[in-house]
Design goal:
Blueprint: H1 3-23, E1 108-109, H2 121-124, E2 133-134, E3 146-147, E4 170-174, E5 198-206, E6 212-222, E7 234-243, E8 252-256, E9 272-278, E10 298-301, E11 303-307, H3 308-313, E12 316-320, E13 328-335, H4 344-348, E14 356-357, E15 364-366, E16 370-371, E17 394-398, E18 402-408, E19 417-427, E20 430-440
Length: 442
Amino acid sequence: MSEAGRIIRRAVDGVEDAVERVLGREEDEDEGEGHREHEGDHAHKHEHEHGHGHHDQGDHGRPLRPQPPVLPPVVNVTVACGCGCCPPGGHRPPPSTPGERPPHVTGTSDGSVPKGTVDLGGIVSVTTRPPDVWPGPRDKLFLPFLFLRANAGDIGARPVIGPFWESPDILIEPGVDPQHAPAIPTSLGAIAKAGVDNTLYAHVWNLGQAAAPDTLVEFYWFNPSLGFDGAHANLIGATWTDLGPRGGARSHRLVRCPVSWRAVFVNGGHECLMVRASQAVLDPLSAPAWDASRNRHIGQRNIHVMNASEAAAKPTLPIAVGPLFGGAAAVAVQRADTAAVPWLHLVTMDRNRTLGTGAATGDVGLTAPTPAGAPLPNLGVVADPRAAGLLGDSHGVTGDGQQVGFHATDDNPGAGQAHVYRVTGEQNGALFGGYTVIVLGE
């Protein structure tokens, strides 16, 4: 079965499981088949035995209490995939005006369960409820609450305030394929090696009251960019995991991608990584499907780490701006203090120690927007690119398919030090993307 077929099969089985739990008839399933199989095709066997309560004798010869007739149930289930591929009338991301990025609609409460619930049936009992209306406060319902952290202190609130593209939950074991990779990467701040096998990991969390069985975890790479969409996504691999409810040891797990990632550095730029976690029935992926700042199901790692020698050899990096939805954006670059970048603690492997901030000895800026893929100006032959009008701190960008060039000329920051630069994109005053460049001292 193809990967797409397996995903659809899992979604269908998840819907069937939820319906059976609500109807209280899972005991009719064939015990020999088990609840589900994690290896090979998902051969879940559902046996609905209508009218079995009318048998004259029980298993031990005792008469059974007469049962009322079983009427065909009506259960409305909406699976919101958030991918924009559904047919007319199905789930689609909320509409937005030109220049406005797709919003994240979390839904409203109809007050039918004002104090929450501890039973799954209480959530789906009102079959006429619209798919974007909850029966009560979302955090008090018996549902999972999946997310990947944007930073070390993240507990799932969205939109994220500040940099959201430096997730500590996306990790790499460089130079090793998944079949030989350790359960935990040897270095939490490792970076991928180009042209060889690399293994990816995702630390996935559930802060909901209910468990999240069959959670789908997807791993993607993108060319260096500030904003993202499905047209430029490259699936590396996907797998499933089971998460327990919050408060338990199994409420979060480190998930290893089963498919190797052979990274390709585009013009010297490290590719961006994105991981999505969702449960097709209990906590489906919502829109926007590729925006980690607004969607808790998404973790993003837009970090380019290189040593001082590499930085000197390729001082200009192309970074795509990404989709602007018919509007304009402002793209800028700034130096950052290392103390303001919690991700660097993964490099030192020490919660109490980070790298020092290197002294600014040169210039840093962005080239003017050009069509993505076009050659960038050769700033290495220009004595002072800023004075020549080739470099600026920020630029306005209009239209899709644009890129800017990141350029820095600071000297080697020295051992135990680092230069950190953040390239950011804003639209209508809101941060929509970023790309962090870290130069490690030698």
